[in-house]
Amino acid sequence: MYEELDPFFGGDKGRLFVSLNYDGRFDTAPNTKENPDTLLSHPVYQLMKANNYQDKADLSDNVISNEFLEFIQNVGKYHGKIDKNEEVTKNLIATSVYNNWANLTDETREFYTTFMNLVSTEDRGVVSDVLTPNKLKLNLKKVDNSDKNSDKIFQTTLPFLPSGTISETGDSLDKNFLRVLYQDSYNNVKDQGIAGGNGDQGVANGSINGKNYEGNGGPFVTKGDRRITKAYSFLGDVEPATIYAEIEVNTAGVGRFIQIVKGSSSNDAKYKRAIVEYLTKINFNSADHISNVTVKFKFENQ
After folding, report:
1. What's the rounded Cα separation, in Å, for the pair 247 and 85?
2. Which of 14, 15, 29, 257 could pair covalently with 2 via S-S, beta carbons 3.0-4.6 A apart?
3. pTM of the predicted model over 0.70
4. pLDDT band, residue 260 (cuts 50/70/90)
5. Angle of the 66-83 helix axis to the 177-186 helix axis, nearest 10
6. How does pLDDT run across 58-82, given as a tens digit for each residue?
């Protein structure tokens, strides 16, 4: 059945993922947010680990491969094209899947039924048979179809990353990272932080714009073993810039500015002053040790 799933993933890279990620049903993730570390013994984790890829055998078991992250990113982008009703993508799935429905395996039909809607543009009703391509719209099923911001069902089946997971460049990855990466790619957000890029490294509902630094769309940890648990609105009177700062976090989760580090677009002292002030509005998670972490701040015109 696996080659029949190529139109859903935009290529053949989804075949192995499907064979390893799903245990008998397609609407369930291989682990839970509450117990993410159970993924370590799940077959799909072998696909995710960098040391199972060529020339990366010396990397540790907690490193997620760039290849796997790029796969998730590309699927998100492709699914965005499906929901935008791009003609080429729509016709590919219509002709390869729904026009061929009777010849597909039961398992393949269950897969597409779980994750996709075939909708008539005439009455907006869900249909089971292909009419003509110009009267059809394909979209990804959501957990709550009445909520335009609801997660896609496929998105909810992506694994939660185990604790201590890092990228190939050593950046700490949040347990929600794969789901955020998929969603940001779906939304055509660029540079989500793969391999240390300038992105939102797994902040739930994150935004690389970070306007007004509100909620989960504000600053975030790109390297280190702590995370930001609360960030209040902050309006700094400085020019637009992206600043990476080394922050010392004490056991109570209070941060102290150390220095501006590599990757920043400026090292002007005014950004140091702004970050020192902003740290009074940020809480990190508590721990039994002091940590040095790298935090990304994005200053923009308000």
Report:
1. 45
2. 15
3. no
4. very high
5. 40
6. 889 999 999 999 999 999 999 998 8
